[in-house]
Automatic annotation (TrEMBL), chains A, B:
<dbReference type="InterPro" id="IPR036388">
    <property type="entry name" value="WH-like_DNA-bd_sf"/>
</dbReference>
<keyword id="KW-0238">DNA-binding</keyword>
<keyword id="KW-0862">Zinc</keyword>
<keyword id="KW-0479">Metal-binding</keyword>
<keyword id="KW-0805">Transcription regulation</keyword>
<dbReference type="InterPro" id="IPR002481">
    <property type="entry name" value="FUR"/>
</dbReference>
<protein>
    <submittedName>
        <fullName>Transcriptional repressor</fullName>
    </submittedName>
</protein>
<dbReference type="InterPro" id="IPR043135">
    <property type="entry name" value="Fur_C"/>
</dbReference>
<dbReference type="InterPro" id="IPR036390">
    <property type="entry name" value="WH_DNA-bd_sf"/>
</dbReference>
<dbReference type="Pfam" id="PF01475">
    <property type="entry name" value="FUR"/>
</dbReference>
<keyword id="KW-0678">Repressor</keyword>
<comment type="subunit">
    <text>Homodimer.</text>
</comment>
<keyword id="KW-0963">Cytoplasm</keyword>
<keyword id="KW-0804">Transcription</keyword>
<comment type="similarity">
    <text>Belongs to the Fur family.</text>
</comment>
Amino acid sequence: MSTNRRETKQRVAVSAALDQVNEFVSAQQLHSILRDTSDGVGLATVYRTLQQLAEDGEVDVVKTADNESMYRRCSRGHHHHLLCRSCRRTVEVESPSIEKWAQKVASANGFAEVDHVVEITGICADCQAR
Amino acid sequence: MSTNRRETKQRVAVSAALDQVNEFVSAQQLHSILRDTSDGVGLATVYRTLQQLAEDGEVDVVKTADNESMYRRCSRGHHHHLLCRSCRRTVEVESPSIEKWAQKVASANGFAEVDHVVEITGICADCQAR
DNA sequence: TCATACATGGGACTCATTCTCAAATATTGG
DNA sequence: CCAATATTTGAGAATGAGTCCCATGTATGA
Ligand SMILES: [Zn+2]
Ligand SMILES: [Zn+2]
Ligand SMILES: [Zn+2]
Ligand SMILES: [Zn+2]
């Protein structure tokens, strides 16, 4: 809700850690990454910070098949993801036609406050080559 | 993987209960619905049965925002859903162009074994009028 | 009817995520 | 710089969906 966030070393640490990975990572992974380096950050704080970053549109969130939230610093603006189920390599994809389609289907059926989830998964070329 | 399922009264009960609702329901909801009628069905069995029905393509599964799996008996064949976040009213939608788009984006990036998740949510006309 | 492979369910267990709240700390007005 | 104050932190407890274990029950086919 609020946009007034204090700059604590924990928040900086989480943000910095996110910058070091290019794929989606879970709160737990980030927590153990931070455990090793310098002063660790509490798990609760990692969760809170990631949620806030997501609220602020700083990171994107996707859910794995086994219900784990994964976070990634993405480019700003609405987009979707094509991601490798094996190595989590991520490709951001944009498609105005998909957005229009979703909106059209919804309003054609009388729905308002439309939202949508569109994610494509697969096995990337590298992972296919094993 | 197997398709050899025995016809037990529990399985019949779960399947019948599913037929009585037209929206997506969770395993827990189905369990408490069944608790009231006749002989209840164990929670573990409800989960198992729903999973099997999903495997067999008898029901569709969607995840709520708070990571709960919801099941619904849908028409056969691949399709997606437009669903009301308030009352869970569901509209099945088909769109060959979306399917082609997903496949094209994936192969253009060297991905194989492509899968995708496409769900549209909103507030239905009735819930807006509420 | 019998043998037996498969199904059931109560309860313990997992595990991501949230909650609690006292102690730590960033911010700010003076 | 300093004290007052509003936030933030984090260790551990709590939550809750879903899974597992396994002794008991049963659908099914010979
Ligand atoms: Zn890969
Ligand atoms: Zn979109
Ligand atoms: Zn509705
Ligand atoms: Zn599709």
